[in-house]
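Lab notebook, bench 4. We co-purified these components, and the gel suggests they stay together. Before we commit to crystallization screens, I want a quick structural picture of the whole thing.
Request: model the full complex, all chains together.
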Amino acid sequence: MFYHDKRLQYPVRCPNPNPVFAKMLQQAIGGIEGEIRVCMQYFFQAMGARGPVKYRDMLMATATEELAHIEMLGHAVALNLRNAPASLQDEGAADSIVGAVMGGQSAKDTILGMMPRHLLSSGLSAMPVDSNGVAFDMSHIYASGNIVADMMANAMAEMSGRTLAVRLYNMAECEGMKDMLSFMIARDTMHQEQWLAAIEDMGGLAAATPVPNSFQDLPEQKKFAYMFMGTDRNGEPPPEGRWTSGPSIDGKDNFYAAQAEPMGEVPSLGGARPDSGAQKEQMQEAPKAAE
Amino acid sequence: MFYHDKRLQYPVRCPNPNPVFAKMLQQAIGGIEGEIRVCMQYFFQAMGARGPVKYRDMLMATATEELAHIEMLGHAVALNLRNAPASLQDEGAADSIVGAVMGGQSAKDTILGMMPRHLLSSGLSAMPVDSNGVAFDMSHIYASGNIVADMMANAMAEMSGRTLAVRLYNMAECEGMKDMLSFMIARDTMHQEQWLAAIEDMGGLAAATPVPNSFQDLPEQKKFAYMFMGTDRNGEPPPEGRWTSGPSIDGKDNFYAAQAEPMGEVPSLGGARPDSGAQKEQMQEAPKAAE
Amino acid sequence: MFYHDKRLQYPVRCPNPNPVFAKMLQQAIGGIEGEIRVCMQYFFQAMGARGPVKYRDMLMATATEELAHIEMLGHAVALNLRNAPASLQDEGAADSIVGAVMGGQSAKDTILGMMPRHLLSSGLSAMPVDSNGVAFDMSHIYASGNIVADMMANAMAEMSGRTLAVRLYNMAECEGMKDMLSFMIARDTMHQEQWLAAIEDMGGLAAATPVPNSFQDLPEQKKFAYMFMGTDRNGEPPPEGRWTSGPSIDGKDNFYAAQAEPMGEVPSLGGARPDSGAQKEQMQEAPKAAE
Amino acid sequence: MFYHDKRLQYPVRCPNPNPVFAKMLQQAIGGIEGEIRVCMQYFFQAMGARGPVKYRDMLMATATEELAHIEMLGHAVALNLRNAPASLQDEGAADSIVGAVMGGQSAKDTILGMMPRHLLSSGLSAMPVDSNGVAFDMSHIYASGNIVADMMANAMAEMSGRTLAVRLYNMAECEGMKDMLSFMIARDTMHQEQWLAAIEDMGGLAAATPVPNSFQDLPEQKKFAYMFMGTDRNGEPPPEGRWTSGPSIDGKDNFYAAQAEPMGEVPSLGGARPDSGAQKEQMQEAPKAAE
Amino acid sequence: MFYHDKRLQYPVRCPNPNPVFAKMLQQAIGGIEGEIRVCMQYFFQAMGARGPVKYRDMLMATATEELAHIEMLGHAVALNLRNAPASLQDEGAADSIVGAVMGGQSAKDTILGMMPRHLLSSGLSAMPVDSNGVAFDMSHIYASGNIVADMMANAMAEMSGRTLAVRLYNMAECEGMKDMLSFMIARDTMHQEQWLAAIEDMGGLAAATPVPNSFQDLPEQKKFAYMFMGTDRNGEPPPEGRWTSGPSIDGKDNFYAAQAEPMGEVPSLGGARPDSGAQKEQMQEAPKAAE
Amino acid sequence: MFYHDKRLQYPVRCPNPNPVFAKMLQQAIGGIEGEIRVCMQYFFQAMGARGPVKYRDMLMATATEELAHIEMLGHAVALNLRNAPASLQDEGAADSIVGAVMGGQSAKDTILGMMPRHLLSSGLSAMPVDSNGVAFDMSHIYASGNIVADMMANAMAEMSGRTLAVRLYNMAECEGMKDMLSFMIARDTMHQEQWLAAIEDMGGLAAATPVPNSFQDLPEQKKFAYMFMGTDRNGEPPPEGRWTSGPSIDGKDNFYAAQAEPMGEVPSLGGARPDSGAQKEQMQEAPKAAE
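Here is the predicted assembly.
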């Protein structure tokens, strides 16, 4: 079960609030690269973890940390919104100039139009949505029951998470926000490294792949298991690289390249069944015999 | 641009059709581990690929191959559905026995209840949905503009894809389906290996991480970049493993473990603004001065 | 504005309730072929209708009728569910036999597993979801502001709606349900016909197409406007039919067939920008000059 | 920030695992009446709470407790799934009998067909989805910035939550599950009561409504603010009750009933603009002058 | 069944059209606080209402009224959009000044970028989407089959609806829009009051809670039913208020406060099954014996 | 199976990149009127096509062409984004002027706020989303198994697709974009025409309707199959048009108009069941006898 400490994990200061930056920060809360995603992903992976208990504990520890990241960002969004225009009274003198220039459109209108729901739905607070206002959807919680597939999913999530945090850092103009983001970037570094370290802990990618390593490719299909397939219409060979020759990552064979060619038949379903709601014209051919 | 060959990439035979297995196969078409996902993911990554052109070409070649996998599975679903019950006339003698046993419920009802939309909406054909009938949602196409984050996303997708194919293979009772799936498992092996090989092609994970490698952790935050944080309420130390000591994966520092402690303040937003649609009681405290 | 008459548009009787059929009927309420869709589609088209007012009035009249169809189906679902098993007390003697046969699984479990939310969430009533329990999503309301595109969308919706009603009719075993569905099938007939009649009212498809008919194909592109493009990899000609020769539907030209060939360049984006969160390796090539 | 204790809040025992009950329990994890919803709702409300700090602290305390409920249910789902059929080897002798009865369909097929993703996607673990396998969508996190609207949303969520828990309790056959659910029902009782108590703490519904109480109905519209409108087509008066006479809940006026009648005009938009992609026929009427 | 009167319920005038305000109004149509939601929620509750018929009639009357509110807002959106820029010809002289100031970006671009689908998809008409352009999703229709839970859901929906209408009123600059919104605010007042009055009609919250009142907390769990649980990591007592002492709302007991402590075990699932698609490493521990 | 040619189908040039236009183009990629939709719709229809094989081949040929359209648009989006502001360094001199005018808001902020995810999530590349950033959802792939319903769905999709392309053409200021769009408009013309031609190929709408033509309206319901129903509250007759008199489109009868009147009963469900989680008050009436 869980406990809470009222203090934030790291200071969140916002001397120069910017409502548009609040909108950008939402990507780090409710975006697919964001903190709700990693938090819930590690939590569900931990709840379903079978095998050595240390991986379960590791997942739960970091899930718990990510809750604190959501909390920091939620506070940061509210701080950035605190001066956002919400009514006619906010309109300053500048607006009449802008209106003249922009054909009646005011600066207030521009901000309203860019973040309507923070003004209309949340009362100037953070929401579990991305930077376009699209709610986070839990189908992005990847937890497959295969520990290596899950660790890869986690490393990937932290890579896109750190990429997002770097982009936000590049955009930020407020020193308080830059400081908060630099802490988050550092944690994303660790989290990337730790999930990759967990794969090393299990013997590394050579031992772990192909995932799941509890199923071996069947002998008759093995020729397809290390072949890079080119699909160029004009028969141009596929691009050469580490993936077209040399030992495979799992060390079980060598890569090679070849042009893809059809091995199957032209598919055909025959006519439609009389009870299937199709048109009469579709029923005039015989249903195909079972293959 | 694209071209089509009428033949399938690999034979799809289904001597023993099973409508419930058709439902299972839908996960490999429209599930998050399925073929629409990898196909569109590689396609969008290719369209946005900046930097060495060989990665773009590699992505497009495999995107093109995945189209053929959707096609094979779509045909397999239709073949498995071809005898599914769709009307009263399908009811055989067995049903009256089942009805007696199951309190009026018939075997036909059971199948209808498990796959309603294949009977009501698609006319016994494949749909772009998962095994629960939930439509695939393109937010699962991960394409970040960072080539290593994307290759990891691809390797992860193929790992969960091969895990799914193995589970389907374990469930399958029809030899035709087992043969088709064993080909797909072999291709998933190659695809896992090839995306990992692309990372090696760029110097491997040591050179690539932390992603993005074009941004270095700031000196003042570096102490947080290799620290595994324990969050146990009772102060129990975090689980030991490759992630608590020894060199980090990027080779830039050493891992260590520590207990997480709050470094920030108790957050506070003060009172609500008069124009914000809050209750009067929320406005009785002064809005907090800007931080 | 709207008014309500307490009586249903047509009798809804259900002497033989079947909870699985309730699940099937949900497709006609909250499915993409269902009544919420057509009701809201006609309503939004009416609210945005510009031009001759008779089309607006016609849309609103049928939107109002569709509300009555939702109401009939909602009642039908509740009637079919009225004996569904919701607790241990429902279990009859038959279950012990089934349990013996099915390895501990009971008939009650089977029904629960097929319609969990009608038992857990709605208290044995209709929901605005499809037959898989997926909620209706208003993105399926098609209202383009182009009256012909909208009438086609409506005709199509009624075609798939009547196809669905026919499939339900084929599945139904209860005379009351068959009677209700036969009324709905008749109304779907009329609704198909009336939207097509509205296109005739505007001059028919020849005058209406290509939609929008307020924009003419540019002279330099007109050669592509009536060409059926084959994309067979082996150069096999496209299938012949009404679409490969003879006058086009709009009467402006003649159809012909040809093989698709690339007219454009190989696309290239060059290197990534330094501020874009990409990997260093992607930045080593120069960004491509503006095209 | 947050901390974790490895022990569960309350014992979770499952001596009689039932995979269909695992499916039912998913509604309490990822359903709209479930624990992810209340947990995240209280968390986001706390992060945006303005005004007296005690409400913020109360929200965060219960958000933290709800994390423990997700954890208990996640464990309960995995325990119920531990014997679910996942491969051919699971098939017992009973199946051949069932197959004979059900026309080739086996009991294993029935279970597979009812919970495909727990077998294919999660490896027999809990998922953040409802009982139909639909992922939880964070748009259900209601946090309006108005503390009374939010407390009502919370009370409502716990009412539907306790209703769900009671329905699950009625369905459960395993004593361990019944015990866990009875604890959750008790907590749902408290949570209902505490959010209602918070409204009393602010003066009760009379003082709080109409929400927001910081805006008064305008004098010229006040006649509409306490009138129950009947919309019966035949002029039948609306149903009498507490809402048609006597003092309003806010004590500001008296309820009364009346028949709704149109006060506005017939709406009209005139013709379509030439640049708007409409049909020519829609443009033949003049656009309506600005109202 | 339903009938329609061509006139609007209340006048909708828009002398000063503002396309950005059209975007804001969309929240009141297709937002979770909007009119489609309440309309459909009351409709589905009415269709499933069991027990005294007056509640069913009341729900249906107000559902019917809400259809008229959608209609008013749909018209208001179209009126506000009627001068929105849709093509090059709209660009006035002001734009060249703006372009100079904004680095080539024009005022037209700004408006396009804020409401792309009203220009591209709807032809300047209302859509069933919220202010971010996200389509309304019917999972927000709450209808539980429990009349008190439903009345609370309705009161809450009207509270957030009136909060939204007040925020829109504060933003509006056009007198016609302010007048329309003041009517809607008054109706939201009545609707809040009427659903609360319905609960009073059934005896009030004391008699109604805990919902469902047809299930009593079990004796052995009753101690948890009135305890406010603190979860502070440092043992700080929970915030005091009406919820920590004094009689509970249902009058059945007294509130008290206590610190949450784990009563359960450390959960453990043991090793993975050989057929489950996990890694070999996860299978090296024995699956845990059934609890 | 599929093959790829590295060259684009038609030249894509973008001499005057405009990030807001990139946002607009997204509607043509991931909008419901866009290219992913038609591509996947034709692909799934082809995979499920029963009856004459020429329709299947026709569908697959055009599905393959649409892949090339996605590719062109994906490249066009990336080209339009190539100068979008992504970091502080982009800010030119103009911004300080704008800032003065707009109360601190900069032109960079305006662009960021309008397209956050292209900057934060995709690294300046195309995404499978619409112009509001909402991901494409595969439930919009209409494939009913009825060939006429499907051809109508296709014609409708191309009509709304050409309407969208015309609107984009009207907005475009860059000659390269106008040229690309004029090619796409021409192809949308052909695609509209070809699906309508396919219906002619099967005998035209008279023979094809009512869809499905394999089910005839029952004699006792036929009177409802050609009646336009008015629902005006005041009994005003429905709008006259081609749909109120003259032969029906299917030639089987004549249209006529009549006022809708209720033929059914007042629905009633009686009291709630004791096991259903309702309130006690709902259970005090007897459950209604089965109808």
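Confidence is low (pLDDT under 50) at residues 88-93 of chain E. Worth comparing against the SEC data before the next meeting. Strands of chain E lie at 2-4, 227-230, 256-259.
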